[in-house]
Backbone:
């Protein structure tokens, strides 16, 4: 079993390895000019991440959701509030969060399956 200090050290090492600046956006409902509500993207976090190609097994598991989109597994610092449906802006690309791949035992990062935004 890992101690809290050991886990915190591992989380810090993983966070230090995340090399891409990114912005997380989430749709929030705001009043529109006609008295209704409309979804408007709002920045919920500016952080760092890393992108990697998903395994064949993971791609197959989410094949119906991914269709013909390019997909990646994104890793974020532990504690980052990422939700399905969020938009990730990284390296000039807009990626939609398709699924959260956490929790796992001894989590050292938050992982999500992301794909090209439609």
Residues:
């Amino acid at each position: 079993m890992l101690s809290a200090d050991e886990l915190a050290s591992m989380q810090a090492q993983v966070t230090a390895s995340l090399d891409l600046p990114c912005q997380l956006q989430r749709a929030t409902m705001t009043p529109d000019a006609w008295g209704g509500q409309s979804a408007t993207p709002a920045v919920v976090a500016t952080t760092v991440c890393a992108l990697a190609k998903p395994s064949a097994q993971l791609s197959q598991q989410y094949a119906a959701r991914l269709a013909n989109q390019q997909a990646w597994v994104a890793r974020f610092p532990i504690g980052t509030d990422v939700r399905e449906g969020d938009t990730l802006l990284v390296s000039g690309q807009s990626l939609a969060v398709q699924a959260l791949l956490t929790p796992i035992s001894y989590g050292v990062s938050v992982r999500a399956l992301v794909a090209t935004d439609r």
Summary: The chain has a mean pLDDT of 89. The helical segments are 4-17, 56-61, 63-66. The CA atoms of residues 43 and 106 lie 28 Å apart.
